[in-house]
Amino acid sequence: MAIGPFEPGVQAVRQRVFHELAANATSTMSRGVFNWAERESTSEQHSTLHE
Q: What mean pLDDT do residues 18-24 have?
C-alpha cells in the first residue's frame, strides 16, 4: 500500500509543520507564506483536486 501526498494523514503532518514554521518565522513575508501553505493543507478544495 502506497501513501500519497494527498492522504489525510500526510496533509495533517504538512499542516502542523507549516504551522510551526509560521509561528517561528522572523519576517512578515515568510510568516505569510507559511500561513498560506498551512491553509492549503487543510483546504477542502486542495484535497478534492487530486482524488
A: 97
Determine the 3-state secondary structure of 28 from DSSP.
Answer: helix
Q: Are 34 and 18 in contact (CB under 8 A)?
A: yes
Answer whether residue 35 is part of any domain.
yes
Does the residue 3 lie in any domain? no
**Which single residue is written with the C-alpha cell 482524488?**
51
Number of domains in the chain: 1
Residue 4 has what pLDDT? 87
Residues in the chain, overall count: 51
Q: What is the pTM of this model?
A: 0.75
Q: Which domain holds residue 26?
A: 8-49
Instruction: Give the pLDDT of residue 27.
Output: 98
Interior CA angle at 20 toward 17 and 25, to 5°? 120
